[in-house]
Amino acid sequence: MTIGIFTAMEKEAQSFLKGSDYTHTTCGAFNIYRFELAGHDAVLCCPPSVGEIAGAAACQLLISKFKADVILNFGVVGALTEQSSLLSTVLVKSVVHYDMDTTQIDKGVTVGRYGCFDDVAVECDKTLIDSALSVVYLPVVTCASADKFVSDAHQKTALNQKFGAEICDMESAGVLFACKFNNVPCLLVKCISDSLFGGSGEYEQNSVKAAEGFMSLASAICVKLQ
After folding, report:
1. What secondary structure, in 3-state letters, does 80-142 show?
2. What is the Cα gyration radius of the chain?
3. C-alpha distances in angstroms, 98 versus 7, 37, 158?
4. For residue 141, with 0-12 CB atoms within 10 Å meaning exposed, 13-18 middle and 19 or more buried, which class applies?
5. Which residues have CB under 8 Å from 64's CB, separation 6+?
6. Which pTM value belongs to this model?
7. Cα(102)–Cα(111) distance, rounded to whole angstroms?
8. Which of 100, 132, 148, 182 sits 20 to 30 Å CA-CA off 53?
9. Torsion angle of alpha carbons 164, 188, 59, 158, nearest 10°?
10. 3-state DSSP assignment of residue 10
11. Rounded CA gap, 212 and 167, in Å?
12. Are 211 and 157 within 8 A, CB to CB?
């Protein structure tokens, strides 16, 4: 099995590369790292920019060029509630792309809704989530995703109240939707780098530390993959 791994930033990729015997190439502006992971061939793609478009493009590259059978996305996120603890790791059960808005032309369609999906919150692969939970118990949450770094606590609370999301980031919608469109299962694993009231300063302080455990968690999950 070929495991495609997507990280939006190089600092999120370092957990996979530190101490690993990997090969590095480029594909256009994308950095590509190949290594062995729990008996599988792993291909990690890191794009030249953060954001939904770069995330979707990276996952399409992993699927089309490198024939990934499954996509694992590891990244750092912001908390939208006080219950989401700093540096805690979570699994994503569904994603809301909260910037999607066609309400002016699609009457009866709510903000965040894509016509090709049944609901505003788009479900992730339950089989992969269950496999991950059989390795380690982690909270399973909804992620609000858009091309926007949210640091203001009032804005975070509004996202939680409107969409029921517990975390937010800038890539999950691009990752999940690209995988959905290609019928490739994906698992989104996130670690909280900034709390509800922490803002950008807390993110800068904790983002590297939040990503440190990604490799060990990925190895444990990949043991379960056939």
Report:
1. CCCCCCCCCEEEEEEEEECCCCCCCCCCCCCCCCCCCCCCCCEECCHHHHHHHHHHCCCCEEE
2. 17
3. 21, 34, 11
4. buried
5. none
6. 0.95
7. 7
8. 132
9. 20
10. helix
11. 19
12. no
Half-sphere exposure of 117 (CA within 13 A, CB side): 21
Tens place of pLDDT per residue across the chain (226 aa): 999 999 999 999 999 999 779 999 999 999 999 999 999 999 999 999 999 999 999 999 999 999 999 999 999 999 999 999 999 999 999 999 999 999 999 888 899 899 889 899 999 999 999 999 999 999 999 999 999 999 999 999 999 999 999 999 999 999 999 999 999 999 999 999 999 998 899 999 999 999 999 999 999 999 988 6
- Per the CB < 8 A criterion, the answer to whether 74 and 189 are in contact is yes
Distance CA 146, CA 88 (A): 21
Query: For the residues of 151-181, what is the DSSP string, one character each?
Result: --HHHHHHHHHHH--SEEESSHHHHHHHHHH
Long-range contacts of 28-35, Cβ-Cβ distance < 8 Å, separation of 24 or more: 30/57, 30/58, 30/61, 32/66
For tokens 């032309």, name the residue.
Answer: 105
Tokens of 85: 């603890």
Chain-centre distance of CA 225, in angstroms?
19
Quote the CA–CA distance of 145 and 156 in Å, as a whole number. Answer: 12
Number of C-beta neighbours around residue 182 at 10 A: 16
In this structure, what is the dihedral angle of CA atoms 174, 179, 167, 86, given to the nearest 10 degrees?
Answer: -110
